[in-house]
Design a protein that fits this description.
The chain has 129 residues and is α+β, with helices and mostly antiparallel strands. Helices cover 23% and strands 42% of the residues. The chain contains two helices and eight strands. A hairpin with a 4-residue loop joins strand 3 and strand 4 (64-72). The longest helix is centred in the N-terminal third of the chain and has 15 residues, at 2-16.
Amino acid sequence: MRFAVLIALMVGACATGSGPGPASLAGTSWTIAEVDGAAPVAGSSPSLDFDANGRASGDASCNRLTGGYAQDGAKLTFSQIATTRRACPPPIGEQEAKVLKILEGASGFEMSGPDLLISGSAGRLRLSR
C-alpha cells in the first residue's frame, strides 16, 4: 500500500512540474510565414537560421542578415544585426525594415506545433520549418 501511495505522489509531482522548458533553437532553420499577421510580400522569401554558436543568419526579405542571438528559456534576444546593402523595391523594402525592427526588439518566443513565434516591442513574426 505504501508503495502505491509513493508512486501516486511521484506521478502527481511530475504532472504539476514546469517541464523541461522550451526547445533549443540552435541548429534550426525557418521560413518567415507572417510579419505582424501579414503574409510575406510576393517575390520575397524571408528566412532565419540559428547556429549552435549563438549566431543567426538569413534573408531579411531583400538583403542577407547576420547577428548574434541569445536564448534563455523562452527569452530570445538578438544583437548586432547587420545586413547587406542592396536597394529593395518599396513593398519588399518596407517588409524588410519591419522584419529587422521586430528582430531588434524581440524579447521572447514560443513554439506552437510546427511554428516558431517571435515577439517583442515592435511586433511579431511567425516562422515555419
